[in-house]
Design a protein that fits this description.
By secondary structure, this protein is mostly helical. The chain contains 12 helices and no strands. Keywords: Membrane, Transmembrane, Transmembrane helix.
């Protein structure tokens, strides 16, 4: 009779070991699956942002007019296409001419920049470091890692546009499918979280597009006043790249400084000051004002997310790190923080 409890205890211990091992194996499989599919999830998020853009315009028109959703969505899509086509028709030739001129002048501007650098010992050190990195292949390796895509650039764009089109046309079909995966008693909460995610992404995207437009206008005015050639093309590059936090403005500054350097170093310094001023205004005045009701994400957290996600997904991770962090923060708040606060409040 005394041996029976020991046998049960031994059997119970072995069972716990198997259960623990099974749990760790399941977690490992899920993590490997997540890593393998993360690049695809990023593209789905990009497509979702396109759908959020069109749905946001559609809801705004519906709110103002009371028209049906199908009609407002058609107006949203066709109106966007017509506006972009009109802009291209008005200034497309000038933009194309300046972009072509910019691409042709970049080799000579690089050579001018190298010559200016070699005039000082600091510049010579920088030039030697760049040459060494290029010779060792490290620079190429870094660029290939951070600027790779999932299915190639055209393939990625096709997936993004296709997902965006389907989500724009029938969003409720997909949200209903997600809610069916949740137990019936939790579907109300799931609906609330999906609504919160959609509203948060819509607010962020609205603020981002507005900030990009303001950066384009301010940069265009500044470059035109300074007298920098190809100012319109450079301003458009600055506006578009402002979508990428932290790294985008720095990348946009490079061609502008190189073009200004082809005139003289003083102009290049003024251009650097202009870009820094525009980014200061955008980061401290424009974006906080537009997104004042949005969840605040610390800049250091965005940079960390960009670097970490870029390791797995390349350029799309750098571009979409902010909406990824926004989604994660909303999910953590709605699924963990708020329930814990409510629980503590009721227990108190």
């Amino acid at each position: 009779m005394a041996e029976e409890p020991k046998h049960d205890k031994k059997h119970s211990f072995v069972q716990k070991v198997w259960i623990t091992g099974g749990i760790f194996s399941l977690i490992t499989v899920l993590l490997l699956l997540f890593k393998a599919t993360f690049s695809v999830l990023i593209l789905l998020l990009a497509g979702t942002l396109i759908a959020v853009f069109f749905r946001g315009i559609s809801e705004f028109i519906k709110k103002k007019t009371g028209w049906k959703s199908g009609l407002t969505m058609t107006i949203s899509v066709l109106g966007t296409i017509l506006i972009i086509s009109g802009i291209i028709w008005l200034i497309g030739a000038e933009i194309q001419s300046q972009l072509s001129q910019l691409s042709k002048s970049l080799p000579s501007t690089f050579e001018n920049a190298r010559r200016y650098l070699n005039d000082s010992w600091v510049g010579q050190e920088i030039s030697e470091k760049i040459s060494m990195q290029r010779t060792n292949g490290k620079m190429v390796d870094i660029f290939s890692r951070f600027f790779r895509t999932t299915f190639g650039l055209l393939g990625d764009l096709y997936v993004i546009l296709l997902v965006g089109a389907y989500l724009s046309a029938t969003p409720f079909l997909y949200t209903k499918g997600i809610k069916k995966l949740v137990p019936p008693r939790r579907r109300g909460k799931a609906d609330e979280i999906l609504s919160h995610l959609g509203h948060g992404l819509q607010q962020w995207l609205t603020g981002k597009i507005f900030a990009m437009f303001v950066v384009f206008i301010l940069t265009a005015i500044g470059l035109k006043i300074i007298g920098v050639p190809m100012w319109l093309a450079l301003a458009i590059i600055a506006g578009f790249l402002n979508f990428i936090p932290n790294f985008g403005p720095l990348i946009a500054m490079v061609p502008a400084v190189l073009v200004a350097l082809s005139q003289d170093p003083q102009t290049a310094l003024i251009v650097v000051a202009l870009y820094l001023l525009v980014q200061f205004l955008e980061s401290n005045l424009i974006t906080p004002k537009v997104q004042q009701h949005l969840i605040s994400i610390p800049p250091a957290l965005i940079i960390s997310a960009q670097l970490i996600v870029a390791i797995f997904t390349g350029i799309w991770g750098i571009i979409l790190a902010t909406p990824i962090m926004l989604v994660v923060i909303i999910l953590v708040q709605d699924l963990y923080v708020k329930p814990m606060e409510n629980k503590n409040h009721h227990s108190g």
